[in-house]
Structure formats: C-alpha cells, structure tokens
Amino acid sequence: MIHGLGHRAGRWTWAVPLAVGLMLAATACGGTDTSSTPTTPSVPRTTETFTNTVPVGGSAFNSFRVAATGVTEATLTAAGPPATIVMGLAIGTVSDAGCTRLTGASVNTAAGATAQLSGLTTPGTLCVQVRDVGNQTDGVTYSVSVTHP
C-alpha cells in the first residue's frame, strides 16, 4: 500500500515540470492569448481595532473610513465582564444621533475570533457600534476589529 502512494507521488513530481514546460513552449510560440483575460485589481484592506466601555443600557461607537467598494467585516473580539456576555454589534452611518445602524447590519453576539458581521460597503465614513442588549449589570469593556477596503 505504501509503495502505491509513493508511486503516485512520483508521477506528480514529473507531471508538474512537464506541464510547466508545455506552458513555456506555448507561450514562446505565441499560443497563449492573455489579452481576453481581464484582471481585477485587488483592493487594499485595513484592519482597525477599537476599545471602549458600554454603560448599562447604553452603547458606544467608533467611526472608520471605507476607501473603496468591498467587503467590510466586524468582529467583537472581547467583551466583559463576564467574558461570555452577549452584546449588540452593528455597522452604521455616523449621524447627529450617533451611529445609525444600517438595515440588516446588526447582530447580538458573544465575543469570538471570527467575523460576526460581514457585508458589501461603498466608500464613505461608517461606524461600528457595540450596545447593551438588556443583560448588563455594570459597564462592559470591549474590543472590536473592523476590516474594510
């Protein structure tokens, strides 16, 4: 059984140089047409981390600037005490009233390592809001990361 696996691995190692050689030969002969394959420029992404405290029954927010259309992700990375508390997390626009949540861009969540909110955003100033969902008995300190274009 082990011999068979080694044999397959041996075939893989010679197939790669053969494929590369064929691609180089085709390119040298002008056989590859790259003019019809458009490339999409990658949008640089920025990660910002904000820390603040949410008072009982209240909220806190931080603003950030989106430079280009692309996916924005928000991750509540820490909140407590207690460390398992569920908080409201939202993306919104900055207004005179604070951070006005965008439709569909809000979730109740405990802190975690993966993005709890993700969505397509356009250039402009947005905000990330963390709020008490009615279960706080004292102020809660949080850390939230926002990754955006």
Description of the molecule:
By secondary structure, the chain is an alpha+beta fold. The chain folds into two domains: 34 residues; 103 residues, Jelly Rolls (Sandwich). The protein is 18% helix and 48% strand. The protein has a four-stranded antiparallel beta sheet with strand order 1-8-3-6, with no helix packed on it. A four-stranded antiparallel beta sheet has the order 2-7-4-5, with no helix packed on it. A hairpin with a 2-residue loop joins β4 and β5. The protein starts with a helix and ends with a strand.
Cα(first) to Cα(last) distance is 50 Å
Oligomer kind: single chain
CATH topology of the largest domain, by name, is Jelly Rolls
**Order of strands across the widest beta sheet?**
1-8-3-6
The largest sheet, given as strand count, sense and whether it forms a barrel, is: 4 strands, antiparallel
Strand content: over 45%
Assign the structural class, choosing from mainly alpha, mainly beta, alpha/beta, alpha+beta, or little secondary structure: alpha+beta
Please name the CATH architecture of the largest domain. Sandwich
Any descriptors?
149 residues, alpha+beta, Jelly Rolls, 8 strands, disordered N terminus
Note the topology.
Layout: H1 2-28, E1 46-54, E2 59-66, E3 70-80, E4 87-95, E5 98-109, E6 117-121, E7 124-131, E8 140-148
Antiparallel strand pairs: 1-8, 2-7, 3-6, 3-8, 4-5, 4-7
